[in-house]
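Quick entry between incubations.
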Amino acid sequence: MNIAGPDFIKGLAFLGAGLAMGLGAIGPGVGEGFAAGKACEAIGRKPEEAGLLTRTMLVGQAVSESTGIYSLVVALLLLFVV
Amino acid sequence: MLNTATYISASSFLGAALAIGFGAIGAAVGEGYAAGLANQALSFRPEKSGDVLKNMLVGQAIAESAAIFALVVAILLLFSTPQPKTVLIAWAAIGAGLSMGLSAIGSGVGAGLPAGSACVGIVRQPQNANKVLTTMLIGSAVCQTPAIFGMVIAFLLLFLDFSNMPVYPGWAALLGAGLATGLAAGGPGVGNGLTSREAVTGVARNPEAGTETNRVMLIGLSVGQSTAIYGFLISLLLVFTGLEKSTSLSDSFRLLGAGLSSGFGGIGPGVGLGVVAAYACKWVARRPEATGILTRTMLVGMAVTESTSIYALIVALLLVIVF
Amino acid sequence: MEEISHIPQITLNLLGFNLVFNIETIVMTWIVMGILITFGFLATRKIAFVPNPFQVVGELLVSSFYDLTKDALGEDMVKKYFPLICSLFMFLLLSDWLGIIPMLSEPTKDLNTPLSLGIMGFCIAHYSGIKVKGIKQYVKGYCEPIIFMAPLNLIGELAKVISISFRLFGNIMGGAIIILVVSHLVYSLILPPLLVFFFGLFVGTIQAFVFTMLTLVYISLQVK
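Done. Structure below.
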């Protein structure tokens, strides 16, 4: 294989983008899942409060998502800018 | 250097080792969990040992099936002697081993979880044994689907003719295809197991809610497999897309990066989706009249949890198609 | 083993466009349609109080799916969407079971069938959503909970189509590939029929039910 300077950089940048987004998706997946699960439990206990409970769940999940978005930003930077 | 036939032999052996090495992990853990809970159940009521033992063995057999798929692929790799037409067959062998081996981990663990809780449930309420057994069978069997996706990709890699694919960057495409499905099937396997476990416990406590619980469990299991499906999609794209010959490192590594992104990106959300469906099933069993709102909340929660695996899918698609 | 990638096709050249027809899938779909129409005719020919066997099966299917649709959509919309749901399930169930008969193969083994049914369900759900909620409310729905989520919500809707189509395709084609490979490797009379029963009857029924239920749930999410 041809391993020259700029091509080497681009190749490893692609690999890095894949690793960044891939590994970065693990944490938010588990965390948001736990949040949604407990929301289902709370709605099971009190179905009449469904609106409030769903809103709280969505806000909590949006905050958990933040590290996933950092990973996405880094991956896109590696793809398009490097 | 070594010639093509030697590469192919060596990689087939490596692929066989990876397939059965990884594939043996999950089933053993799952079956051990089932056996442990069966003993705990027997400590409550030793006179039910016949029923509990039968239940435990059936559940363990289903958990074993993922490892048996891995054994089949390993034996195929050990004893097949393909025509040494292209060295891509060597990379395909490694990809097939990774795909089958890694995907069997999650399904093995996942199928053992409902088997264990079925044993405990039967002992607590022996008159509902049939309903509990039915839910356990459906849950465990659907839990094997990610391992089936892994086996399908392994068979495609073993038996398709790759003479027309260029060696560079074809090697990365085949390896990436194996990694994408193999890794991505691990999370949904465990997540489906968590869901089935709660559904079986719920049916054991409240058998009148059996129909609704089974329905919500099936929806939860199927949507929970979405991340394995995204990995499967990327694998199919990598195997079947037309590649142009190019010896640059970036073209090879972008395909490998696509496989890694989609593969790893399926693990976390898979487990998370399973946790959502598990709590939903548990509370549908306790309060069947709230099934509608619970199902809707479960689906909304699952849609948001899935979002990071969709980011990973988008990055993978960008790498394969756009660059 | 080359049958895995071999698809019988006919290519016609019409007005400069290349039209490709997958002949095996089309013929199998016609067979499924023929069987369903014959079943419908036989079940409703003489509706008597003491029913013939076809009428019993038909009443069982119709009543269970009517209850299912009423649970999800509510009393007022059930009559509009129920025929779609019931016929979708019957078509998918028979398509997945067709592989058991020798010489025939499942039309859902080809990606075109599940993908077109998935896109059809997507279009129906969103068209009904726009009609019921009005276009302003529909677009606002994408901006929940924050406006930055709008492109992600849009991609999430497309991901729903991909996941239900590929789930059905992956399960059915996967089963067909496994049966093909095992039959090539093992000269046995017991193992392939067992696999055919597992993948065709059990997995096929579950996947048909899951596809129908998810389409129903996606319609009810848009319409409510």
